[in-house]
Every structure is written in C-alpha cells, then in structure tokens.
Amino acid sequence: MDFFLKRIPAFSRALGELDSDEDDSINESTEVDDFLDVAGVPVDFERVVSDLSFKHIIVSIGPIQTAFISGALCVTKEHLIAKLPFILPIYSGADKTARTYAFVYFVSPSEKSTLIITLPYVRDNIHHSQKVVVDKLLHQIVSSGQTGSGPDLLVLCTREVHEYRASSVPSESFVRVIHSDPRENDQSLPFPKLEQPNILSGFPAEFFTYAILRSIRSMLLVLYYVPQDNPGYAWQSVNELFRKITPLEQFSDVFVSFPSKWDLPEDAVLRKACISLICGNKPSLMDQMYT
C-alpha cells in the first residue's frame, strides 16, 4: 500500500492538502450543486442517509460498471434517493464543460442493505472538482451514524487495456484489484492485484483515497477492456465484460447471484454510453449502430 500512497496522484494530494486552505478556494456553489430528490427538488441528503442502515457502499464509475451493478442488483429508478449535479470539463484541458450527475440508490435485499453511487457519464479527465464531489457524497454517508464497524466500500471503474503497464499485457479484457488492507492475501481476493508501475487517478483514486484516510475497509476493482471496432458486436462485448466481473460473487454477500443472461439496460442513454465506450467513443462507429 505504501507504493500506491506515493504513486496515485489523489493519495499524495489528499495527504498533503487534506486540511489545507487551498481546498477551500474551490467554488463549490458553481461546480457542485445541492442534492436533489427524484423530482429534482433540493433535498437534505444528510437527513435522508441518517434514516438508512446499510452494510455496503458500492461506487460504479462509467457506463459499463453502472450497467453491471444495475443488472446484478436489479437497481431501478424506484431505488433512487438522491442525485448530485456537478460540472466537469468535457475534454482534458478544454474550457468547454458539461453538467452531469452522481446518482445515489438504496437497495435492501433482505438484511444486505446497500447504498449505491453511480457516475455513469463521467470521463477520465482529472479535475479539482472531483475531490469536492467525492467529499460531498461520502461525508454525509460515513458520518450518518451507521452502527457497528461501519459500511465497507467497493469501487468499480474501467480503463482501456493499452493503459495497463506490464511486461506482458493480456490480449483479452481482464480485471485487477487494490485492497485497503495490505495484509489481505492474494487467495482471499477475487482477482489479481494491481501492481506497479500502474497508477490510477481521477474519480477512482479520489474515492479510494477518501476511504483509506478514514480507515474504511475498501476495495477498488479495475476492469481493463479491449475496445471493439465492430459496432454490431458491441453489446455482446459488453456482456463479455460483465462476465469478467462476476467473480465478485465470491467476495461479497451482496452479490448472491448474477443474471444468466445480461439484457440491454432499460435506460437508453446508459445503453448508448456502454456501446460508445466499447467502440472507443468514435462517433463514426456509433453512427453505424443506428443506420
């Protein structure tokens, strides 16, 4: 873990500036708004969360991980308890920005209640408001008076295979994991550990950093995927990626069973985002999907 504390940008920044005045200079009112309820009306998120009891927090970053969680836990719009609007740049270093949302769901299958945070439409671009978003999402949750040792945190994100650094890179999609407990042995983890010289940044590192600095038991799972050039094969490729993640069933009691067949998400925007991601976000390929 010392390696990741040094190598993950969010770790080093959080460790050095956690209580600094510099963070206070970020204009939260313009970049991160207030929580909204299902109808889009401002809601007291602290009060909403304090009325809930849950064992697990799952964070899905990106459309594929969000679609996976939605299918695995049967998450619907009826489970939505709040959403957080915020502004992020569309492209790294560009002035053009876009408004997007973090969605918070609560599902309670028997006694295994779970709080789910999804950021389905964010990009990997690094921006200082990401830390503000994560702090605003998790602060009320971890301080909401949960009983016992508190909930654990599972973060799921995606990266393209070419971003993986190793002497030999698999030709197929694969999964790597980072665990908050350095004493955790390889046999207890559902996937191989993410090793140096690989680093993570952006939202995945911000969520994991938050958990580490507050001694929250956490695991970060990275799905390295191979972009698909054949748009007609795109959703089948997404299904194959889902199957890559299903060993999570061995890790957490949240995942009792997975669908034998992954259907298209009901959310058409999410479905399009999954296909766009697996096609390498190439508009020309997306056009072929609908012609």
TrEMBL record:
Coiled coil stretches, renumbered: none
Superkingdom to which the source organism belongs: Eukaryota
Keywords: Chaperone
GO cellular component terms, semicolon-separated: endoplasmic reticulum
Keyword flag Chaperone: yes
A Gene Ontology BP annotation from the UniProt entry: proteasome core complex assembly
Matching InterPro entries: Proteasome_assmbl_chp_1
MF annotations from Gene Ontology: proteasome binding
Family: Belongs to the PSMG1 family.
Name of protein: Proteasome assembly chaperone 1
